[in-house]
Amino acid sequence: MRKITTFNEQIAINPKIRFGKPCIKGTRIAVEDILNFIKAGYTFDEILKQYPILKKEDIIAALDYTTSVVLGREEIYSFSPH
């Protein structure tokens, strides 16, 4: 059985949710989803309107997680369905 990994208490990685993509804890909203909104030019407020369950701190945690991955301080966990 694979365990759930957490980062900064707001990002969870569970192989049973979104194929193991890092998500905001307690949701199915992936860090990748938030990054795609930011890449498309959405503001934090616009993202929060799309996902009312989120808080500003969740978006910041997603960015912190991404920064840690890029800088090599955090591993990228991904689980394939095969």
Report what the structure shows.
There is one protein chain. The chain is an alpha+beta fold and 82 residues long. It has one domain (5-70): Orthogonal Bundle (Arc Repressor Mutant, subunit A). It is 38% helix and 10% strand. The chain has 3 helices and 3 strands, in the order βββααα. The protein has helices at 31-39, 44-50, 56-70, and strands spanning 5-7, 11-13, 23-24. It has a 3-stranded antiparallel β-sheet. β1 and β2 (11-13) form a beta hairpin. The longest helix has 15 residues, at 56-70. The mean pLDDT is 87.
CA radius of gyration is 12 Å
CATH superfamily: Winged helix-like DNA-binding domain superfamily/Winged helix DNA-binding domain
Query: In DSSP terms, counting alpha (H) and pi (I) runs of 4 or more, how many helices?
Result: 3
Largest sheet: 3 strands, antiparallel
Placed side by side, the strands forming the largest sheet appear as: 1-2-3
Number of domains: 1
